[in-house]
Amino acid sequence: MSTFIIKGSSVTDPNQNTIGGANFVRITATSNTTLTITDGDSSVLGSVYIQNGDTVIIEKHPKDKITCANSRATAVGSPRS
Questions:
Q1: 3-state secondary structure 42-73
Q2: How far apart are CA 41 and CA 66, in angstroms?
Q3: Does domain 5-77 match CATH 1.10.3210?
Q4: Would you list the domain boundaries of the chain?
Q5: If 0-12 CB within 10 Å is exposed, 13-18 middle and 19+ buried, where does residue 30 land?
Q6: CA–CA separation, 21 and 75 (whole Å)
Q7: 23 exposed, middle or buried (CB, 10 Å; 0-12, 13-18, 19+)?
Q8: Strands 44-50 and 33-38
């Protein structure tokens, strides 16, 4: 079990969203999907496939944007942050 601090409301199906400028984002796939991260200039930094029901926590820069259809994303932090 992971411990984290919720730092905002969840975003359904984020599209080019900074998720409140978060450094850490928890994403749960509601269907098979691809998570893509772009920088402030919309250049693709990377992408990853996420299966339905899987949850990942990613680290990003505050201005990086997340696009992930079929998901819920929430800004989170660790107990040490």
A1: CCEEEEEEECCCCEEEEECCCCCEEECCCEEE
A2: 13
A3: no
A4: 5-77
A5: middle
A6: 8
A7: middle
A8: antiparallel
- Locus of tokens 């601090």: 5
**Torsion angles phi and psi, residue 31, rounded to 5:** -165, 165
Angle at 19 between CA 28 and CA 5, to 5 degrees: 65
Phi/psi of residue 61, nearest 5 degrees: -80, 150
Q: Kindly report whether the global pTM for this prediction surpasses the value 0.85.
A: yes
Alpha-carbon gap, residue 69 to 62, rounded angstroms: 20
Question: pLDDT per position in the chain (81 positions), as tens?
Answer: 577 888 989 999 999 999 999 999 999 999 999 999 999 888 999 999 999 999 999 999 999 999 999 999 999 997 765
